[in-house]
């Protein structure tokens, strides 16, 4: 049996998970939450991670009922992500790997999401919609690579939602996206917003600029409520995502969709994607916030797959990179 521990800390979540042959033994995490109207700075986020990482590591081992000797491999997020938090987590993973005398593995964050989604949902060969605060991609597997069929050409969908939340001072606890989703349920009036799909790609910066400018005017004049704006923003950006996912499915002849990433636990996005899948006679796969939101177990799972196929990262190659594309990784564990 192969046991892998995974360290994740590419953004405002710090998580450490342990996987044994497809079974999640433990997966504790902490979130760095800032006051309403503020985002999180890389240096502050790294400081938060540094303060809690050893507590989380202890929790992960205790919950799994394992000792360092039981671990076969140490996996960590190599990228993409925010520089300072990535460096912090890689440093701890490197140290642990040397202290315990275990091989090290640098994992692509996006592939961690995909492999975790495949493990939990048992999807066979899905078209993947990966949506989070830092990434928006439509992906399908072909010839030992996860190929990107469409993506955002500017900001990620989660970043668009988060920044809108800052404009109207929505709380960051537990996350701005979750709070927008709850407010959107109370919205009844649809406000028309720019809808920007360019072939297989999407753009969110124009929608954000438009709604940032319009929000205060519309709210102060009573044209609509904050709930209406949340509802309208969700409906517009999710429609764009469903459109490019459907196009990728048609191109690949796929009958499965897997939604991964932090925005993937939004039930309205799942509902809209479900309608499209039903019309095509396809199946939708999604997970809940335990595995959608950044966590250590997803890095452990991707690390498990990589380690089993013979990959390891030498110490001198164990750097991090803020830009690390999904299609740069050779997928040696799938045929």
TrEMBL record:
Its EC number is 2.3.1.234. Belongs to the KAE1 / TsaD family. Residues 29-300 form the Gcp-like domain. Keywords: Acyltransferase, Cytoplasm, Metal-binding, Nucleus, Transferase, tRNA processing. It is an enzyme of class 2 (transferase). It catalyses: L-threonylcarbamoyladenylate + adenosine(37) in tRNA = N(6)-L-threonylcarbamoyladenosine(37) in tRNA + AMP + H(+). It is found in: Cytoplasm; Nucleus. GO terms for biological process: tRNA threonylcarbamoyladenosine modification. Binds 1 divalent metal cation per subunit. It comes from Seriola lalandi dorsalis. One of its GO terms (cellular component) is EKC/KEOPS complex. GO terms for molecular function: metal ion binding; tRNA N(6)-L-threonylcarbamoyladenine synthase activity. PANTHER family: TRNA N6-ADENOSINE THREONYLCARBAMOYLTRANSFERASE (PTHR11735). Its main location: cytoplasm. It comes from the Eukaryota. This is N(6)-L-threonylcarbamoyladenine synthase. InterPro entries: ATPase_NBD, Gcp-like_dom, KAE1/TsaD, Kae1_archaea_euk, Peptidase_M22_CS. It holds the Pfam family TsaD. Its cofactor is a divalent metal cation. A divalent metal cation binds at residues 109, 113, 130, 294. Substrate binds at residues 130-134, 162, 177, 181, 266.
